[in-house]
Amino acid sequence: MKNIFIKALAGVMLTVGATSCGDKFLETNIYNGIDLDTGLNSVNNIGSALNGCYDRLYRYYFAGNYATNIGDIASDLAYWNGDKGHFNTINQFTYQPTDTYISYIWNYGYKVVDNSSRVIKACDALYADASASDKEELTLYKAEAKALRAYATLTMTNVYGHQIKVNGQDFSSSLGVVVVDEPVQAYEEVKRNTVGECYTAVVNDLKDAIAGFEAVGDREDLFVFGEAAAYGLLARTYLYMENYSEAITAAQKAISLSGITTLTYDAKAYKALYNGGASNTESIFALAITTTNNWSANSCGTLWSTYGITPTPYCLALYGEDDIRKSIMTFAEEGSVPYYDGGKFGAYGTGNPANATNYLINAPEMFLIQAEAYLKNNDEASAKNALLVVAKRNTAITSVSDLPSGSALMTFIQDERGRELFQEGHRLWDLRRWNKPAGLAAYDFPNIKFKFNNCQLADFLFPIPEGEINTGFGVEQNSNWQSVKPQ
Length: 487
What we know:
Layout lengths: L42 H16 L7 H8 L4 E3 L7 H4 L8 H28 L4 H29 L4 E2 L2 E2 L24 H22 L10 H15 L2 H15 L8 H6 L10 E4 L13 H4 L5 E3 L1 H5 L13 E3 L5 E2 L18 E4 H14 L3 H12 L15 H15 L5 H8 L3 E6 L5 E7 L10 H5 L17
Antiparallel strand pairs: 1-5, 2-3, 4-8, 6-7, 9-10
């Protein structure tokens, strides 16, 4: 991991802002930086470093675009109109280990992981001799850093490793990513941990984060991690692990702590959720992307509009005629080369999709986690009650009697996750953990056609970036990444 953890370049950005496309990995000389070996010697400096961790997460190379969108664009829900070249290699499954998106997700994911680990270590070093008020602040900073590290580790494990479970089949012994408990020193040799070890690290970090928030409270700010968001990420993790009872409990804690016990069922109010910034009253954790601090041409909104990524005709067909979510599913131009208006990245408050932010952990997902987990625990009644909270977005559905039963209920839940979570980056990981046959690489809009049909993705995974492999510091390639591509 030499290219990730070069000590001479290590540092943290103190403010959030855009950089050029030529930004080098772990480069910190654009802003006033703190040296991570000697500078994290005060509570104030640690707070600044934590802001730098959020900056890494926020970047379009990671959660601000690439690491979020890859889960939808490599699925049955996203269509590449062929007019621009953005994400085409991912959508068409023509990527190589040198692929830009695959490389930057790894690079910036490990920026979040490494910088967060350094913040955690610095908090521990100062804690014993700190004042009572400083101890509270250090506990809070450490909790947020643990949650950030968990988010990045889980995201990268999805991209570069197997799902831990696929319909009960256990992949925990397969290779995941490199778990970082202590900051990795320059030129230190490392190795990939198993998927099971990665998930253990994620769960432990989130439990530690929750304990910290319980001890001192959180900032009650949508744009930083708090207790509700940590529980929400834990619920997602437990669902992937098929620990269904724990997923139900964690999702309920996220719902209760966030105070989001119901959703909107009005088309105008639903569209207003995506005006930008804090407009989404159903969100638990989001990125601080604004009209002045955003990624412009590299934004999610640009990707889902002028860069030509749209919902597939199959995706559009999932929505009923009376579904309020269709209020944001509009096109600037349709036809053989469709252009979307941004959808969840429409930023309808300003009309400029580049200003849209990413809502990363949201209440609707929590209800859907509960619905799936209850059903897997053979509690169909509770599954329907949780599902109804989201399914009523289709105003033709008014009660649990309008929902299917038996095996059809699981199919409905799967489709409802597609409808509700579209553009939030979950679909590929869902298809993989369900091993649900899917069409991929859509073409011939507006007809429902796919280049690859009935693909089962239980074994699918992306390659490790070639640049990381070539450093020779211990990270090995996914040997079967080519053979598990859609055929």
